[in-house]
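REQUEST FORM: STRUCTURE PREDICTION
Request ID: SP-0412
Submitted by: Lab K.M.
Chain count: 1
Length (residues): 147
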Amino acid sequence: MPLHDHLLTAERRPRVVSDCIHLIDEEVDRKGGLSGFALKAAFKAVKAVKPGFIAEVTDGLLPEWVEKLEAHFARWEAAGKTTSFGQFCARDAATVAERLLEVTDARARKGGHRTVLALYEKLRSGAKEHVIAAVPGLGRVVDRNIP
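STATUS: Completed
RESULT:
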């Protein structure tokens, strides 16, 4: 069964979005140092500029992110599901991160709120490292939401 059939049902999608938002909040909170400070400030600014933006964007991008995860999910199933999907993705976190960032990069190029776009462009150079760090958590989100 394709991943989208598990995650994007009317029953399960709101829970997946909520889990993703919780993961994003945890990942941002965990960041330290100067880059962490910049990321936290940008995240706070986005939330202040447009409340509900994180949930809206997460829900809007979810189908494309799931599409990017489909190949990894199919390989995990073909490998016999000998580990959790989160552990499977963590083994190739850089590739998973790059696929997910393809979605956000394409969305950023389409335009949107200028302040948010400016923040995205400012932080994009370090985004891959942050997404790589989040891949195991994303895999756990998937694990929790597939039967």
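NOTES: The mean pLDDT is 90.
Reviewed by: T.R.
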